[in-house]
Amino acid sequence: MQKQKSSYVHQDEIPWQNHPFLSVVKIKRFISAKDQLGITYFLATVAKGKKIDVHIHDNSDDYLFILEGKGEMFIEDTGVIDLYPGVFVRVPKGFKHGIGEVYEDLLYLDIFHPEAF
Q1: What pLDDT shows up at residue 1?
Q2: E strands, 10-91, where?
Q3: pLDDT (0 to 100) of residue 5
Q4: Strand partners for 18
Q5: Number of CB atoms found within 10 A of residue 99's CB
Q6: Cβ contact 22:52 at 8 Å
Q7: Which backbone phi and psi does 71 adopt, to 5 degrees?
Q8: 3-class secondary-structure state, position 35
Q9: Within the chain, what is the greatest distance between any pair of CA atoms?
Q10: Do 102 and 69 meet the contact criterion of CB atoms below 8 Å apart?
Q11: Is 1 exposed, middle or buried (0-12, 13-18, 19+ CB in 10 A)?
Q12: What does the pLDDT read at residue 4?
């Protein structure tokens, strides 16, 4: 078995790009399915006044850690929760969820396990 290599990159070296499925989300992708590490890991931003419609990930858990901003998120079994710096959210695969309100631009780390894209 081949030993994996470590990696190092500063976020400023990665350009913002459109999320592949959510038009209101911009991402900086650190790890993707092409890396074959079993996760997708990226920095994401959603602008004030935008929202992410309720949706489901059939094959991956979704983990979010809020770094900046404020908003509200709906999760099927929990209801509406507040998003603000320091909040960690786990959405199990198959659960409906979405960001319904963004009061201040949101910046968050987003991880899918297993990888999503």
Answers
A1: 65
A2: 17-18, 25-31, 40-46, 52-55, 61-75, 79-83, 88-91
A3: 85
A4: 26
A5: 22
A6: yes
A7: -175, -170
A8: helix
A9: 48
A10: yes
A11: exposed
A12: 81
Buried b (16+ CB within 10 A) or exposed e, 43-58: bbbbeeebbbeeeebe
Identify the pLDDT of residue 3: 82
DSSP 54: E
Residues in the chain: 117
Please tell me the pTM assigned to this model. 0.94
Catalogue all structural domains in the chain, each as residue range(s) with its CATH number.
15-113 (2.60.120.10)
- Retrieve residue 6's tokens: 């470590």
10 Å Cβ neighbour count for 30?
Answer: 17
CA distance linking residue 75 with residue 81, whole number of Å: 8
Residue written as token pair 């899918």: 112
- Asked if residue 31 lies in contact with residue 39, where contact means CB atoms within 8 angstroms, the answer is yes
Residues of the chain scoring pLDDT < 50: none
In this structure, is the dihedral angle defined by the CA atoms of residues 61, 108, 86 and 10, taken in order, positive or negative? positive
Comparing CA positions, the residue from 109, 61, 69 lying closest to residue 85 is 69
